[in-house]
Each structure stands twice: as structure tokens, then as C-alpha cells.
Amino acid sequence: MSESDTLPGTQAIAPEQVPGIRSALLRYRVMAYLVGVLLVVLVLVGMPLKYLGGNGAVVTWTGVPHGWLYMVLIITAYDLGRRVHWPWGRLILIALAGTIPFLSFVAEHYARKDVLRRLAAVPTPSS
Questions:
Q1: Given its phi and psi angles, is residue 24 left (phi above 0), alpha (psi -120 to 50 degrees) or beta?
Q2: Quick one: 94 exposed, middle or buried, by C-beta within 10 A (0-12, 13-18, 19+)?
Q3: Residues 6+ positions from 13 with CB-CB distance below 8 Å
Q4: pLDDT by residue for the chain (127 residues), tens digit each?
Q5: Do residues 119 and 10 lie in contact, with contact meaning Cβ atoms separated by under 8 Å?
Q6: How far is 69 from 83, CA to CA, in rounded Å?
Q7: What is the C-alpha to C-alpha distance for residues 116 and 122, in angstroms, rounded to an integer?
Q8: How many domains is the chain partitioned into structurally?
Q9: Is 55 within the bounds of a domain?
Q10: CB 69 within 8 A of CB 114
């Protein structure tokens, strides 16, 4: 595989790396949606209930899991980014997206699109 076989600004991905990248992408996507949903519930339901209704139960039951799962999201994003050779700037933006409601869904969309584009450029081994 020559350098001209890869997309501009990317490193080559070997065909044997594709299954690992696909599973890392799935892990990242699950975590991005889970963290995103918990954050939306926390901000749109839990915070109003706590500060307007005096009931902090939703904040406790969604805030703590969101915090722990956010750390798992960062790990899965790093794992995926390492496999597809993302620059540090992209990884930092993905990590920050888990702290702003609805943005983790947007980040997941663009990350998935980028990974699938990179995988489409991988030559298939001939049988």
C-alpha cells in the first residue's frame, strides 16, 4: 500500500485493522448516545426539578452515572482515535462535546462519518 492510497491528511489503515476499528466505533457510539441522553435528562429534567421543584433525585440519579460514563466515553473516544489516527484536537473536541447537551450526538455523527470514510478507503484483500 503506497502513501497515495490513503486519504489526504490520514495514515494508512491496514485491512486487518478494520474489525478492531469497527468494534471501537460501536463502543464509542454507544457511549456517546448514553452520555448524551443522560446529560439531556440531567439538564432538561433534573435541573428544573431541583431548582424549581426542590427535588434533587433526578440530578442524583442521572448526574452521577453521567459523570462516570463520561470518563468511559473519553476512553472509548481515545481508543477509536488512536486506531484511526485522529489528531489531538479532534479528540479534545469530542471530549468536550460530552459536556454540552445535544453536542455529543453531533460529535458522534461526524466521528462516525469520518471513520466510515476512512474505512471505505481501505483496500480489500483480494481472494
A1: alpha
A2: buried
A3: 6, 21, 84, 85, 118, 119, 121, 122
A4: 444 444 455 578 888 899 999 999 999 999 999 999 999 999 999 999 999 999 999 999 999 999 999 999 999 999 999 999 999 999 999 989 989 999 999 999 999 999 999 999 888 776 4
A5: no
A6: 21
A7: 10
A8: 1
A9: yes
A10: no
Grid cell digits, residue 108: 458522534
Sequence-ordered alpha helix ranges (H) in 1-127: 18-41, 47-53, 57-84, 88-97, 103-120
| Whole-angstrom distance, CA of residue 44 vs CA of residue 110 | 24
Does residue 6 form part of some domain?
Answer: no
Domain with 85, as residue range(s), is 15-117
What's the rounded Cα separation, in Å, for the pair 5 and 24? Answer: 23
Q: Which amino acid is at 118?
A: R
Distance in angstroms (rounded) separating the CA atoms of residues 108 and 71: 16
How far is Cα of residue 16 from the mean position of the Cα atoms in its chain? 22
